[in-house]
Amino acid sequence: MSKTKLNRRTVLKAMGTAPILAAAPQAVRAMNESDVIVIGAGLSGLNSALMLQGEGLDVRVLEGRNRIGGRMQSLRNVPGNPEVGGTAFAPGYARLVDACNTYGVGLVDLTAVVPYYFQRELILNGEVISPEQWPTSPLNPFPADSKQMMPWSILGAFMAKNNPLQYADAWVDPKNAHYDISYYDWLKQNNWNDASIDLAYNTNPTHGMSAYDASALMMMFSGAFAGVQQQIARSSGGAMGYTAKGGNQSIPEAMANALKHEVQLNTTVTGIRSEGGQAEVHCADGSIYRAKRVICSVPCSVLRLIKIDPILSGPQARGVSTLESQVVNQLHLVAKEPYWEQDGLNPNMFSNSLAGMVVAEHKGAKPADVSSLTIWIRGQDAAWMDTQPDSVSTKAVMDDFLSMRPAARGKVEIVGYKSWYRDPFSIGDWAYWQPGQVSSFATELGKSHDRIHFCGEHTAVSNRGMEGAMESGERAALEVLNSI
Ligand SMILES: Cc1cc2nc3c(=O)[nH]c(=O)nc-3n(C[C@H](O)[C@H](O)[C@H](O)COP(=O)(O)OP(=O)(O)OC[C@H]3O[C@@H](n4cnc5c(N)ncnc54)[C@H](O)[C@@H]3O)c2cc1C
């Protein structure tokens, strides 16, 4: 006789759309109460927590990972502490610089090493092409007046000249919604040919897999933000950029140290409920936390896996379920010998093969010293890597790298590999907006939902990256202060 098996999974399945967070025993419910719970110990969550603590509120931070910092991660076991996440910032990152000053994090002035970053070896189809050869190379698809431009700088220069946004947050102004088309379409409208777009953008895409799935409006925001940062840096007459002493992860770590309650690590949130004058946070380990308000800082790629009750609706729900995070992988290498002195090529590379972009980290005693190298793999190549076992994908990248730099054979060691997409606490890197998404929900994503508030770089309106994260944490904290 067959018996109906009732196990936990079938019970959960059967519950279907029933209240998504099962009632917890009263004894458990009484525990873990505070004024505010912040989900995520990245920059945005920590900034909101510290602001609220400063206003006298009792704040707890729950963090799924076993470390502080989120998308700020520094390799402490590698010379120079190279960054796996947030790489560098500018003097115009006012909130971030202020946090460094307030919480005692030293700044490293990058001015002397910035020029190294812009010199790269161009390698197309395995062929090294010098800046002198490039204007007349048959592989150069750029128009006659731009033949001398290198593929990694031509788009930035074009955007700087042709950006219709006068200021960074104009990207969410409805009057600019007509630019919320694909970057490809906008470039085509501006007389770019397909081969140029392919080389300058699709080879190493910063947002999306290609210019087709990046919103031109987002790229304009990015360009306007970069322009403002350059202006501030130039007018201040000081540093062109910074990293933090000990690696950028030191910033969120110092912020976390300033909290009265230690960040609760290894605490993965699975559900948030806002009901009956309070909010409740449910975690994978069965623990439940209650507070007057919750601030959730996780990226949309993760947020859509967290059950929210009552459910989100309208453009905000659409945004949470569709906003994607960039696929980026990194391989970190240490050179046992300076192979670039042997082959006479620059250690930095831009190529149209798997080892797409190689950046020499100048974090040694002298600006010229190369402390380690980072291979950045983006777009389709990174997506391919994510389908493979690490041993297969990293070998393929190294084979490609060594085919371009045979002098490096036997002289480099892999010291780190990161797939941001495979990391369950980020499922990708920075958010990228596809055509139509900015006008559809950019201003909706960060709106509070009952007792739940949202922050994270993807909800920032005026700043991007690390400073965007800080801006968003500040906005969420102010919302809570106004409501409590
Ligand atoms: C490779 C790379 C390079 C970058 N370079 C730059 C740069 O040069 N300049 C710049 O300005 N920005 C850069 N950035 C972006 C910058 O690092 C991020 O914008 C910023 O750190 C995001 O902070 P956040 O607080 O919004 O998100 P996060 O740092 O992602 O914080 C969210 C936190 O929530 C936690 N979390 C997730 N899910 C759960 C869960 N279910 N339960 C509990 N906790 C959870 C995460 O572990 C994380 O700690 C870069 C990022 C990367 C990855």
Task: Give structural notes.
With 484 residues, this protein is an alpha/beta fold. The protein has 3 domains: 173 residues, FAD/NAD(P)-binding domain (3-Layer(bba) Sandwich); 122 residues, Polyamine Oxidase, Chain A, domain 2 (Alpha-Beta Complex), CATH 3.90.660; 91 residues. It is built from 17 helices and 18 strands. Strands 1, 2, 7, 8, 9, 10 and 18 form a 7-stranded mixed β-sheet that branches. It has a 7-stranded mixed β-sheet with strand order 5-4-13-14-15-12-16. The chain has a two-stranded antiparallel ribbon with strand order 3-6. Helix 3 runs parallel beside helix 10 and helix 3 packs parallel to helix 17. The termini are far apart. The structure holds flavin-adenine dinucleotide. The site of flavin-adenine dinucleotide has 38 residues, from helix 3 and helix 17. Flavin-adenine dinucleotide binds next to helix 3 and helix 17.
Structural class: alpha/beta
- CATH-derived architecture of the largest domain: 3-Layer(bba) Sandwich
Please give the radius of gyration in angstroms.
24 Å
Count of helical regions: 17
Name the features:
3 domains; seven-stranded mixed sheet; 484 residues; binds flavin-adenine dinucleotide; globular; single chain; alpha/beta; Polyamine Oxidase, Chain A, domain 2; 17 helices; disordered N terminus; FAD/NAD(P)-binding domain
Topology summary:
Elements lengths: L7 H8 L10 H4 L3 E7 L3 H12 L4 E4 L31 H9 L4 E3 L4 H5 L2 E4 L2 E3 L24 H9 L20 H7 L4 H9 L13 H21 L5 E3 L5 H8 L11 E7 L2 E6 L4 E9 L3 H4 L3 E3 L4 H9 L1 E2 L2 E8 L3 H5 L5 E3 L5 E5 L10 E7 H8 L3 H15 L7 E8 L11 E2 L4 H5 L10 E3 L10 H19 L1
Parallel strand pairs: 1-2, 1-9, 4-13, 7-10, 9-18
Antiparallel strand pairs: 3-6, 4-5, 7-8, 8-9, 11-17, 12-15, 12-16, 13-14, 14-15
Helix pairs in contact: 3-10, 3-17
The chain binds flavin-adenine dinucleotide.
